[in-house]
Amino acid sequence: MKISTRSATFLALVSALALTACASSESTSTPAARIVASAPKVIVVAGWENGADSGDAPGEYQDWVEREHLDEVVPVRGVPDAILRRNKEGVYGLVLRHGATDLMALALDPHFDLHHSYWIFTGISGVDPSVASVGSVAWARWVVDGDALREIDDRDIPKGWPYGLYAIGADKPDTLPSDANHYGSVTDMDELSKAYPLNAGLAQWAYAISRTASLSDDPEIARRRAAWKGFPNAQRPPFVLMGETLGALRYWHGQSRNRWAERWVSLWTHGKGVFVMTNEESQTNQIEMRLLADRGYLDARRIMVLRSGSNFDMPPPGKNAAKSMGDEGPGQTVAFDNNERAGAPVIAALLAHWADYEDHIPSSE
């Protein structure tokens, strides 16, 4: 789980976007009518990359760049860095070097028409050992926001509470808000929801295509699985499943917080969702995508989220949580690899049937 925050670059990028927007509106030398917009078929979104986009040790982006042959760098208006690549088949790769601001920049650039584009948000995550193993890959039906909540230090919580994290507007953990106005000006309870629904039919369709994908494993990861006695799914070799993503800016770890995450996802999805993956940016990205969809820049029904487990979100039985915190080790490379292995057949299917899928979204429902 990795996210980078570059405040200075962020502010510079926002300023550049504002300036280019003003220049675009005032310029008469290149009328908007003359711009021929490219229409990406599929956009793979990665959160970060180490070093170069290809040819060195991979991050979340590199396997997609190399295996999908995203050889052409495409400029995005207002963004000084290379964040976008594409191949000749209409597959694009976007690496969020400036976080969700890059999503906004791409959507606002008139050189791109995103109304029929399919999105696959990818990346590595902490995985719940009750549900899956390191190297496993999950298609989400919901992205759940774990940021906005009430918090009491666990050492100060009332007797009988499992932890000190609970919903704003609620009076104890594991309960939904009872009064919308506890949040301030909010009056509609639905506005308080922390579950951002994706297109479940599309997610199920993608899972059906990728569930038999050949995933990689690692001898060291396989050796470590033996420590997870009592967690049969954690002891399995990597596999593809369906399950939800929880995004939270706090890099949390441990059995108590894992229990909170399981219940938080179940709470906001009304018992329909299953917590599998946790990371630091999914919630922010989906908030931005929902806003852009509401403004008419893209189709939210075409968004998919595919996360892979680089490490467990709690230590194995008998181990110290502080010592296992952030121990992603060899799991990162396997997670990078399997993320692309699971997503590749979905991209291939979209391209093979583009005559249908350009206007009609595939679904298993």
Automatic annotation (TrEMBL):
Pfam family membership, one: NUP
PANTHER family named among the record's database cross-references: PURINE NUCLEOSIDE PERMEASE C285.05-RELATED
Organism: Acetobacter nitrogenifigens DSM 23921 = NBRC 105050
Protein name: Purine nucleoside permease
PROSITE patterns from the UniProt entry: PROKAR_LIPOPROTEIN
Gene Ontology annotations of biological process type: transmembrane transport
Region forming the signal peptide: 1-23
Signal in keyword set: yes
InterPro entries, alphabetized: Pur_nuclsid_perm
Keywords from the named record: Signal
